[in-house]
Amino acid sequence: MEKPHIAVLPSPGFTHLVPILEFSKRLLRLLPEFHITCFIPSIGAPPSSSKDYLQTLPPTITSIFLPHITLDQNPHPSLLAFQIEHSVNLSLPYVRQELESLCSRAKVVALVVDVFANGALDFAKELNLSSYIYLPQSAMLLSLYLYSSKVDEILSSKSRDPQEPIMLPGCVPIFSTDLPAPFQNLSSVAYKGFLERSKRFHVPDGIFMNTFLELESGAIRALHEQFKGKPGIYPVGPITQMGSIDHENGVECLRWLDKQEPKSVLYISFGSGGTLSRDQLNELAFGLELSGQKFLWVVRAPSSTVSSAYLVTESKDPLQFLPHGFLERTKEQGLVVPSWAPQIQVLGHSATGGFLSHCGWNSVLESVVQGVPVIAWPLFAEQSLNAAMLTNDLKVAVRPKINHSGLAEREEIAKVVRGLMEEKEGKEIRKRMELLKIAAANAIKEDGSSTKTLSDMAESFRGF
Ligand code: UDP
Question: Which residues cross the membrane (predicted)?
Fold first, then answer.
């Protein structure tokens, strides 16, 4: 028999692969006698970013690519969550085959699946494995999933005042506009999908989340009290990746930052695939110019769909969409790079003093870990929820006002950029972010809250 195993199932896409494998690496540090086998589903051929990343894994993690599927079988091509979930569902027969084969040759104690790969949880029951969801996000999002039937009742009530915020136990009040995109239309397929997915959160033995007690103490304590271990709720973060400058823009970004004053640069990025409309891209360009602040901007070609670059590689040169003369006028003020920057290294650089972010959860945690205050600019998924937490609860972010056409105008952008980078408000925000940075580091120290949670889990895996 081989070493005892834990099976791991991410869902397709670089940003769903890395978090669960970074979690796996951390788990293995506490369970050196174990081996992890990761089954990798993908839409089309796996992206090179994923393949490169897999090369960096230790020998105690084996990755097995499942036959990839094609998207033309997808009933809802415009819905990202559906694309991902649907592609995992199409891969389930392969998952089952691989899992059965693994169980026949090794002692498999647990199956850990990404939130969109929840379809595989049933196999764990059949094969007598303990089962877990890895939610690479916040306790606030988990609360929304676990309380979604109650929230649905409230939102569906005819007598409800739409201005009244939703109160999730232990969380900051959430205005309807800050609920994740599916909640913006209660009769949409996306909303029904969210409710369906929510039910699956009651299936596994436990849920790991990439957050930590000191960041979301209210939400985490309320979840523990309410669910009393069924399912078990385990905050194990912050788990962030090491990052790499091994990319054509990497060295250029860091060299440019080396020449800037400490904490003087605003870094701007909308994650691995967030995109702005043409009008918004224009306003942002003029707003940055108007602010007079130094900036490092990762630019993507504009699109009318906010997540359009998420699963496909860009083919157009994004810089051609910038306003006429912008690059020339701002050549002393900023650096613009197409599509990608080494974010971890950029946020860790002493010249970086602010982050205009779409508030994807990885970006949020990376900012917290490096103590960089945020301008919150959510685009899709649960990013508005994260923005509300950063702005209204933790008070480590500011948020530009959006006009009646849904645009943040250039004057508003310039105002919030200056506010964060130069003014008193920004200094207060920076101080609070510094404290969170210390709390994040403490959570993953040997005696930290997240390490303790994970050690207890490791001990229980040994006992299975
Ligand atoms: N990222 C990066 N360079 C970029 C854009 C993104 O390294 O130019 C990384 C970033 O560090 C983070 C991830 O990609 O780890 C984005 O994850 P997040 O959850 O913030 O957003 P998503 O891509 O899922 O929308």
Answer: none
Which ligand 1 atom minimizes the distance to the CA of 337? Answer: 8
| Pocket lining: 461 vs ligand 1, CB cutoff 6 Å | no
Architecture of domain 5-237+446-463: 3-Layer(aba) Sandwich (3.40)
Whether ligand 1 lies within 6 angstroms of the CB of 272 is answered as: yes
Q: Quote the CA–CA distance of 12 and 91 in Å, as a whole number.
A: 10
Q: Give the whole-angstrom CA distance, residue 73 versus residue 58.
A: 35
Is the ipTM higher than 0.95? The answer is yes
Catalytic one of 5, 16, 349, 358 = 16
Enter the pTM of the model. Answer: 0.93
User: Can 5-237+446-463 and 248-440 be said to share one CATH topology?
Assistant: yes
Confidence of residue 456 (pLDDT cuts 50, 70, 90): very high
Q: At what angle do helices 410-421 and 424-443 cross, to 10 degrees?
A: 60
344 lines ligand 1 (CB under 6 A): yes
CATH fold group of domain 248-440: Rossmann fold (3.40.50)
Question: Would you list the domain boundaries of the chain?
Answer: 5-237+446-463, 248-440
